[in-house]
Amino acid sequence: MNYCPQCGAPVTRRIPEADDRPRFVCDTCKVIHYQNPIVVVGTIPESEGRILLCRRGIEPALNKWTLPAGYLEIGETLQQGAARETLEEAGYQIVDLKPYAITNIVRVNQVYIMFTCGLGDCVSAPGSESLEVKLFTPEEIPWQEIAFRSIHKTLKLYCTDMGRGNYPIHLFDIT
Q: 120: domain range?
C-alpha cells in the first residue's frame, strides 16, 4: 500500500503506538490500515461414495483438479460462501453442510475453511472458472493433478475418514 484509501496521502509502514506489529499508517489523517488474512471457503461434495472435483479453468493451476472453493464475500456467512462457490464452480446445489477442515496458510495470508456436504440438484453448467466437473471414488482421484497442497491434504484426510466412517474436524497448517 502506497497511499491512504481514506485521504490519498502517502502512508508509512511502522508500529503504531500501543500495537505490536508494523501497519500502514497515514500521517495525514492518522488512520491505521489493518490488513487481515483472506478467508477461503469451499466444500467436499460427496455422492454415493464419490467426491466432486472441478478442473480449473483459470490460473493459478490451470487444468488441475480442485474442490469447489473461493474467497468469502462481504455479507456472507461461511456456509453461504461455500454453497455459492459450489454452485458457481460446479453448477450444483448442496445439502447437509458440516465443518470439516481449517487450514492456515500463513505465507500467503489465507485461511481455508472446508465443509463436507452432499450433492443436491445440478442446476447449471460449471462456471467460467471450471473446465469440467467430475465425481471420483477415492481410488480414481488424480492425485498428481491436484491443484493446491491444502486441497491435496484435505482430500487425503477426507478419503481416510471415509474409510473409517468418522469425520472429525481437522486443523492444520501449510508451511
A: 38-173
